[in-house]
Amino acid sequence: MTFAFLILAIILVASAIGVVALKNPLNSALCLVLNFMGIACMYAMLDAHFLAAVQVIVYAGAIMVLVVFVLMLLNVKSEEPVRGGLFFFGIAIGASLVFLRIISSTVFSGADQIPAGAPGLSGTAAAIGEVLFTKYVFPFEAASILIMAAIVGAVMLAKKRYKEAV
Amino acid sequence: MELVILAIKLFVVFNLIMGLASICTWIERKGSALIQDRIGANRAGAFSTTDILVLKPVFVVIRFFGMLGVINTLVNDGVKAIFKEDFIPEGVSNFMHCLAPFMAVFPVFVAYALIPFAPDFDLFGYHIRPQLASIDAGILFIFAMGSVAVYGVAIAGWAGNNKFSLLGGLRAAAQMISYELSMGITLVTLIVLYGTLDLYEMVEAQKSGWGIIKQPLAFIVLFAVGMAETKRGPFDLPESESELVAGYFTEYSGMKFLLFWLGEFAEIALFAALLSILFCGGWLIPFVELPKGVWWAALIGHIVLMTKIIFFCVLQIVIRWTLPRFRYDQLMNLGWKILLPVSMVNLMITAALKLWWG
Fold first, then answer.
1. pTM score, two decimals?
2. Which of B136, B147, B151 comes nearest A50 by C-beta?
3. What tens digit of pLDDT does each residue of B95-132 get?
4. A91, A110, B12, B172: which could join B238 in a potential S-S bond, CB 3.0 to 4.6 Å?
5. Which residue in B143, B157, B174 is closest to A57 by CB distance?
């Protein structure tokens, strides 16, 4: 298990670096797909098969397909490297530090001490569904309303521009 | 021992995929000839003879298969593809060009890991479930693999480095994304109906009556979606030869082209397997109860399931050679304005019925 984890971790980190470092946007997008698939494999290794399947369906299958589709449609050429200077460098460092703080607080809070496959924590569809519709029903519904608003907003903006063009 | 059983299962399932894909190729060749009032492949190997007495019976079989066109479609085409020049157009990323065929084949093959090919049986003291991976997500995993299959054609279209390929890849991606919505909602309907995500339990739940009787609408929607997802039949806009040469695999030759071909036929067989498992009771025979856990009952069940799968393969191929191609707006209208609302209404009715009458 640790050997598989090691290989997976190397793939994950390499693909994450590839997303930022590669010049062709399509290559970056495919690196991101690889990264999402790797995360799905991580979930599967933790016995959370449902989460793994949903990760592949939503991120690799839906969102990234749209990204790749748009990149192909616009036929984007390789990007010139941007020299952002000290300001952007500072922003990048700051954001990284914030994320490091969040991740480290999770890692050192003892959440990793729970053995995989413990009762009540397994990632089965039934368990996730029950928790989602009882304990976390408010965030779940709030998120769905947010997405709905975003869809309606996108349609409205597109329609407005269409009318102006005509 | 567990590993040995897994290895045997892997071997059997892999050969089942290759066998189904080969049978589909042959049915396509010979069936299209019959539909178009031609004779079709019947020469290669049909006149082969030998002077060695021991090999005479073997050559009788070879001549028989040659006359049926099996040798032409399976042996000759494979050999031809291997010896053909592997052409890569100028100015494309070599890596992407070689990656695309594998991305087209890989998800289809992986999805077969979830298909149960026979009922459970006991052999030499081991309880064997003829399914490679019985994971909790079940049918969702197949759906996930179906959505990943878009990358193969999209990258292939992009790596062709010409406008025909790119248009073919874009059309394929748009078509697959559009029809995946109806497919997902139909699968949710079936999950609500059977109350499980596992394909094996779905078959067992159909003992009271096949799914096609309970959900005729869902069957029609999933059949249409299956035809569209395999990019064949009246839905073959991505490779329409009168407009786009061959669409996304215009620039592919030899073994890479054959990989696309193989993936396409494996996908046909996959959808046939899904239709027979979800709607036609898998290995169940109506009004006949086979004993549980016996190897010969499992074998009969396997033969019944394979018969259903091949029936649906033939049906898809017959439709592909009978109907003319859609126009692009008709394709999008069918996906977004007919199949999607129908499957949504079907889901709501099914859920309401399930809630009030169990």
1. 0.84
2. B136
3. 888 888 888 888 888 888 888 888 877 777 777 778 88
4. B172
5. B143
